[in-house]
Structures are given as structure tokens and as C-alpha cells.
């Protein structure tokens, strides 16, 4: 059949390699950086309470949730915008601030949603090389052109786990033209306990061209509900509120989010659990002769480079783990084919994956 006048999408759309999420059909699911301990029981309870209300439209302004976020993090609720996951907010920012002919800059091993969002509006994704799997501020600044509309930096970055210090982030911002938007994607901020770390909020408070995005999908473990938020200058928050759907966050997600924020004890337990088992797992894979790249998130990038006798093959390791029902993330799409990204799970899960890697390596 010859189709001559079939509808065609705008330029750039068919260049998108669709985002492939972590596999989910396994017993040990460590491929999507979901919070190891699951959600707070209070969040689950709040979600259940909404069951009788699902015929009602949600509050389109997510007022109670924004108030709860503002109170918890000491922010101005008027400059918070909630979204259906931070992915939605990333997409909306790109849609509102970039288009054909514009460039969207991110670092070499940065989060894959940035180029996907850029291409979806016909903008050109541009990458800057990293140094030792870390964003190189000078390389980023060297790639800024008059067409650069948005610079994305995940801090810490997924999948590398590395981060820019407050000083480095400030230097990146200082080198950008005032008309270029810096988006600091702080999806893992709640896991971080480093004095020199900055989530970007201080920059949002001081400048008109910085936005911080956050999510309830990682430490709060509400990925299925799709809930994220942005803290932005008033003018950018206004723009996001114009382009977002009027009811972009479900009522159940809003209620669960409020309850999750109230459970500070659960949050702290999740953070401590992550530090304990991330450090344990890093030691375990190092003892096996693998390289665990330093990470401040809830995942570790494990490098098989340098292994002998075919054991340098991350993909073979991934398939070996999968046979045992253990799912981890392959990294080809991030340009890191010798690595696997392993989310930090429960104690039992971390012991299982470490034992399976030991067997894979024949040690
Ligand atoms: C997981 C992740 C997100 C997306 O989270 P959602 O809120 O679930 O859309 C955003 N940025 C980075 C760097 C992530 O790893």
C-alpha cells in the first residue's frame, strides 16, 4: 500500500529514541531507583482514603500539597508548581522555552529525558563531555551559544551518581547568559547528606533564570502516582501554570504527597537505610574487583571494565542476574556500555545481587 498523504509529525519527533523504563518483571527490582522501603504507610493510607472521591476533579492548583511542600522545605508556595512527575515539568519547561532552532544543553551522561524533551519540540539537544563521569562546568560553558535556551543539570546525576558542589553549580550559573534557563533536576536531593551539595533552591531564590525540579518518585517511593514539583521564579511559575493541564496532578497523588511529607521519621529511615546499603554494596562489588563509581543517590553505577575472560561484559552480567529474577539497568543508552546501574534495595535484595555478581564472576 502506498500512502502519499499520511500525517507526518514535526521535524525531530522521529529522531526520538523512546525512553525505555527499567524492567519490572522480576522478584528483585533494582532497575528504576524506586525507594527501597516503599512509600510511607501514611501515604498509602491517604491514597486509600481518596477511593470514595475519584469521581471528583482534583484541585487544579494542588493548593494543599504546595502548602505542605512550602512548609516542609521552607519555600514560597506561590512559586511552586506541581506536575505529573517531574518528567512532565521538564517537558513543559522545554515546550515553553525552546523550539526549532534552539539548543538544549546537558552533560554527556545526563538524564535521557532532556534530549527526548528537546527533540519533541524540535529543539536541538547538545551535550558537553564529562570528566571522570562528572559534569565538567567549563565544557558545559564552552558549548553555550546564543541559541542555548535551557541548560539541564541533574544534581546528583542519574545514572552516574556524581554531583556538582554548590560552588561548581554557582560557577555554571554565573557563566550563563541571563536569558538562558538553568534547570537543576534534584530528583535525589533528599538522599544527600553532603555539606557542599546544593539542590539549586538557593539559586532559584537569587536569580530569575533558575528552576529546581523535585520528585516524589524516589525517596518518597510514589512513582506510580506520578508526582513532582518545581520551585521557580514567579515569572517561570506563571508560565508553567499557563502551559500545564488544568488538572495535571490527580487528587490521590496530591493526598498521598501531603501525607508522605508529614512522615519525617520514615523519610529519615529511608535516607539512613540508603547510606548504609549503598556503602555496603559499594564495598561488596569493590571486593569482587568491580568498580563502583562514587554515588550520592540511591543507586550505584557498577563498572565491569578491566575484568578478564569475558567477565568484562556488563550485558552478560545483566542477563545472568535476570535469570535469577534480579533486574538492574543496562547503560548503553547512556553511553556507558561497560556499566550496570543498580538501585539500592532492601538488605535482602542487596545481599542477593552481591551474591549473584560473585557467582557471575566465578569468585
Ligand atoms: C527519576 C528521575 C526523574 C523523574 O522522576 P518523575 O518525577 O518520576 O518523573 C527526573 N530526573 C531524574 C534525574 C531522575 O532520575
Describe the overall structure.
The chain has 363 residues and is an alpha/beta fold. It has 2 domains: 13-37 and 265-361, Aspartate Aminotransferase, domain 1; 42-262, Type I PLP-dependent aspartate aminotransferase-like (Major domain) (Aspartate Aminotransferase, domain 2), CATH 3.40.640.10. Helix content is 37%, strand content 16%. The protein contains 12 helices and 12 strands. It has helices at residues 41-49, 63-73, 85-97, 113-120, 137-142, 166-174, 201-206, 234-243, 251-262, 264-287, 314-323, 347-361; strands at 28-30, 80-83, 103-107, 124-128, 148-154, 181-185, 210-215, 228-231, 291-293, 299-303, 326-330, 339-343. The chain has a 7-stranded mixed beta sheet with strand order 2-8-7-6-5-3-4, with helices on both faces. A 5-stranded mixed beta sheet has the order 1-11-12-10-9, sandwiched between helices. Helix 6 (166-174) links the parallel strand 5 (148-154) and strand 6. Helix 1 (41-49) packs antiparallel against helix 9 (251-262), helix 3 (85-97) packs across helix 4 and helix 10 (264-287) runs parallel beside helix 12 (347-361). It is globular, with a radius of gyration of 21 Å. Bound molecules: pyridoxal-5'-phosphate.
